[in-house]
Amino acid sequence: MAHFQFESTINDLVKLDAPMLRCPAPRWQRKAMDKDDPNHLALSPLRLSKLKTPKTTSRRCSYKNNFTPNKTPKKTPMRSQGKAKPLAGKSKTPAHGVNYQGDRFIPNRSEINMAVSNFKLTAGSNSQNSSGPESQASGDEDQQQQNKKYSSTMAHLLNDNTVQESKILKFKKNAPRVPEGFSNNLKVLYTSNCGSTTKCKSYRQIPQNADRIMDAPQLRDDYYLTLMDWGLKNLIAVGLDNEVYLWNANNGEITHLLQMENPDEYVSCVSWIAEGNVLAVSNSLGQVQLWDVEKEKCLRTMSGHAARVGSLSWNSFLLSSGSRSGAIHQHDVRIADHRIATLNNHTQEVCGLQWSHDGKYLASGGNDNLLNIWGGGLGNDTTPIHSFTQHQAAVKALAWCPWQPYLLASGGGTADRHIRFWNCNTGSSLNNVDTNSQVSALLWSHEHRELISSHGYSQFQLTIWKYPTMAKVTELKGHTNRILSMCLSPDGTKVMSAAADETLRLWRTFEGLEKQKKTTSKNKHDMRSSIITKGIR
């Protein structure tokens, strides 16, 4: 029976039917009692049970006193019918300045910028303390200082000019270098066509006009031929119809080297050996001649092609020649039986041929829109290592990167207009950019890490690109017809372009920063010395 008595005792204790005499009074009752008796500081529990519901209450206290025994409120707030209806004559949102008898109105403090409010309050109090006739003169200055301080505070809060402070993580050491031959295929997603419409800011002065213009009469307007090359001894060889001329860039002298015996023949390509003392000249009959420029003598004539030879490339003692038939012959110029290999994979004329700087790869581009990569071995292998078909026009412009021997840049003709970059170790495409015009030649600048391209229709310009972003550094215009060939000086500072307008133009595109500084300092020194001389006189 004891447990039944215990349960009844617990039930009596937890019942809420009787008034709670020892609990604290609600806030609205305390406010009502303070209004009735402002000097009263403490109320007894007996008096709490006899209090009446205040006549004027807020929305939250619009029902009768819930502390009266055996009485329930007529309306249950915010729960009875899903939505609480506002009282008659009352607005939903309490107006400012209303004296409430119930709970006070608490605004949304999340919408208040406490830092700016504190600054305004502090600035206002400081300006009020300095009121008087003596402080009126400095009032404008104080206001300007406050405005500047307010602007700096807002800039600091918005973190516009404190970029360094916003960095959370920072590497103490540089990231490790990428191993040679590594190719990131995802790089194409972020770098393709990147910077084609933007222009890179140039930190050096690039002359926009040609440094020298020379006439080149009877220069054949043929996109598939390479009729100009710059040798190591600073000699430029130019093929004009059936003749070859040499121009000395040191002193400006012009030398007539050769003329074809048959008037129907014409020069189709010229190429210097690495040492710069032997010039290879090919003609429309499929022959390749080797000339000693110092003695102005033909050393030997190598034949074997069935059509004209439009491209030549040297690799030490090995000379590669590409013909209109699509065949590529490998000539060893040291031996009598010079042809040691034949590469057959192109179906149309081979118009681009270029050996890599380390002699590991040979790149060939043809009029069949095909780009082939061949190995550096001397075997008669007719299968290329890589064959790329992404170009939609003839591939004539080829250039190997000087600081990455496996990186090749290629340019397409009128129907393609793209410059594409290839990793020949992996056979993957790295990037491409649309130039909006025919690409006839490409050259690299090792010092500035830039690429220059020559173009045909319709602006006939030379464009300098910043690698690897491919943002335009500048455009050089002056030719009135499409550019056919382009070559780089041995020191890598100047570029010569040959166009169908029968002119050669010399551009100072890649002059070093040290040379520019020396020239500037020399000009300043000359100006200073002239000023001193005039002062003495």
Helix count? Answer: 7
Question: What is the overall shape?
Answer: elongated
Radius of gyration: 44 Å
The description of the largest β-sheet is: 4 strands, antiparallel
Percentage of residues in helical conformation: 10-25%
Low-confidence stretches: 40-92, 94-101, 191-197, 528-537
The largest beta-sheet arranges its strands as: 1-28-27-26
Cα end-to-end separation? 134 Å
Q: Provide mean pLDDT, rounded.
A: 77
Structural category: alpha+beta
What is the strand content?
25-35%
Record field, number of beta strands = 28
Descriptive labels:
537 residues; alpha+beta; four-stranded antiparallel β-sheet; 7 helices; 29% strand; disordered C terminus
Description:
This protein has helices spanning 2-14, 27-36, 45-48, 114-129, 139-158, 187-191, 513-536, and strands at residues 212-215, 228-230, 235-240, 243-248, 254-259, 267-272, 278-283, 288-292, 297-302, 309-315, 318-323, 327-332, 339-344, 350-355, 361-366, 371-375, 386-388, 395-400, 407-412, 418-423, 428-434, 439-445, 450-455, 462-466, 471-476, 483-488, 495-499, 503-507. It is α+β, with helices and mostly antiparallel strands and 537 residues long. Helix 4 runs antiparallel to helix 5 (139-158). The protein is elongated. It starts with a helix and ends with a helix. The model is unreliable at 40-92, 94-101, 191-197 and 528-537 (pLDDT under 50).
What's the layout of helices and strands?
Elements: H1 2-14, H2 27-36, H3 45-48, H4 114-129, H5 139-158, H6 187-191, E1 212-215, E2 228-230, E3 235-240, E4 243-248, E5 254-259, E6 267-272, E7 278-283, E8 288-292, E9 297-302, E10 309-315, E11 318-323, E12 327-332, E13 339-344, E14 350-355, E15 361-366, E16 371-375, E17 386-388, E18 395-400, E19 407-412, E20 418-423, E21 428-434, E22 439-445, E23 450-455, E24 462-466, E25 471-476, E26 483-488, E27 495-499, E28 503-507, H7 513-536
Antiparallel strand pairs: 1-28, 2-3, 3-4, 4-5, 6-7, 7-8, 8-9, 10-11, 11-12, 12-13, 14-15, 15-16, 16-17, 18-19, 19-20, 20-21, 22-23, 23-24, 24-25, 26-27, 27-28
